[in-house]
C-alpha cells in the first residue's frame, strides 16, 4: 500500500444517485486496501438474510456450540461471491497475525478459517460481520469512477459498519459528510 494522500484505505465510498451499476445503487463501501495496483472494498449495507451464519459454518465443517454469537452475513461485492471476509474490531495496538489486514486503528479484515472457528465458539472479536464477495477496481478505475461523479468519499465509522439499519446507512453516510440526501440529483453537470 502506498501512503500518498490519494490512498483511500479505511475510507468509505458513498454511491451517488447517478451510479450506473445497479449492484452499487445507494451502496456504502468500506475501502479495505488501495494502492497503485487498484482497490478492494466491502459493501456495508447489503444484508444476505437468506444465508445463515450457522448454516455456513456447517457447510465448512465447523461445529458451533451454544456460545456462538449470531453473525450477520452480507453481500460484500460481486467479485468472488463464494469467498468470505470477516470484518471485525481489533485492539488498537498489537500484532496482526497472518491472514489479518488492518484497515484502521481498531478495524481489520480476516480471511482465515481460524476466526470463523473462534466465532463458532463464542470467542474472537467483539464486533464482526461476514461478507461474501468483494468490490474490486483495477489500477485507476476507482479514481476514474470518482472523477465521473460515481462516488463520494468519507470517513469510515463503526456505527456504519456494525450498527444502524442497512436502509439507513446510505443517508447516514451522506449526512456525516454534511450532505442532505434529499438535495442530491442523479444528473451531473459542469459549470
Tell me what the structure shows.
There is one protein chain. β6 and β7 (107-110) form a beta hairpin. The protein starts with 10 loop residues before the first strand and ends in a 15-residue tail after the last helix. It has helices at 53-59, 113-120, 141-147, 158-162, 166-176, and strands at residues 11-15, 28-35, 38-43, 72-75, 79-89, 100-104, 107-110, 128-137, 151-155. The chain is α+β, with helices and mostly antiparallel strands and 191 residues long. It has a single domain, classed as 3-Layer(aba) Sandwich (VC0467-like). The radius of gyration is 17 Å and the shape is globular. The longest helix is centred in the last third of the chain and has 11 residues, at 166-176. Strands 1, 2, 3, 4, 5, 6, 7, 8 and 9 form a 9-stranded mixed beta sheet that branches.
What is the topology?
Elements: E1 11-15, E2 28-35, E3 38-43, H1 53-59, E4 72-75, E5 79-89, E6 100-104, E7 107-110, H2 113-120, E8 128-137, H3 141-147, E9 151-155, H4 158-162, H5 166-176
Parallel strand pairs: 4-8
Antiparallel strand pairs: 1-2, 1-9, 2-3, 3-8, 5-7, 5-8, 6-7
Amino acid at each position: 500500500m502506498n501512503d500518498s494522500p490519494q490512498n483511500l484505505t479505511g475510507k468509505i465510498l458513498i454511491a451517488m444517485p447517478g451510479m450506473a451499476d445497479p449492484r452499487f445503487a445507494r451502496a456504502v463501501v468500506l475501502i479495505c486496501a488501495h494502492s497503485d495496483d487498484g482497490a478492494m472494498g466491502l459493501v456495508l449495507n447489503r444484508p444476505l438474510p437468506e444465508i445463515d451464519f450457522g448454516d455456513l459454518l456447517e457447510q465448512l465443517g465447523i461445529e458451533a456450540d451454544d456460545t456462538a454469537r449470531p453473525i450477520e452475513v452480507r453481500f460484500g461485492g460481486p467479485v468472488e461471491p463464494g469467498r468470505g471476509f470477516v470484518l471485525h474490531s481489533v485492539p488498537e495496538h498489537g500484532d496482526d497475525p497472518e491472514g489479518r489486514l488492518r484497515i484502521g486503528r481498531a478495524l481489520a479484515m480476516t480471511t482465515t478459517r481460524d476466526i470463523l472457528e473462534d466465532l463458532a465458539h463464542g470467542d474472537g472479536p467483539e464486533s464482526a460481520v461476514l461478507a461474501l464477495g468483494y468490490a474490486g477496481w483495477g489500477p485507476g478505475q476507482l479514481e476514474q469512477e470518482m472523477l465521473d461523479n460515481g462516488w463520494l468519499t468519507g470517513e469510515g465509522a463503526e456505527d456504519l459498519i456494525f450498527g444502524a439499519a442497512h436502509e439507513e446507512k446510505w443517508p447516514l453516510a451522506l449526512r456525516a459528510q454534511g450532505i442532505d440526501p434529499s438535495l442530491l440529483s442523479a444528473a451531473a453537470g459542469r459549470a
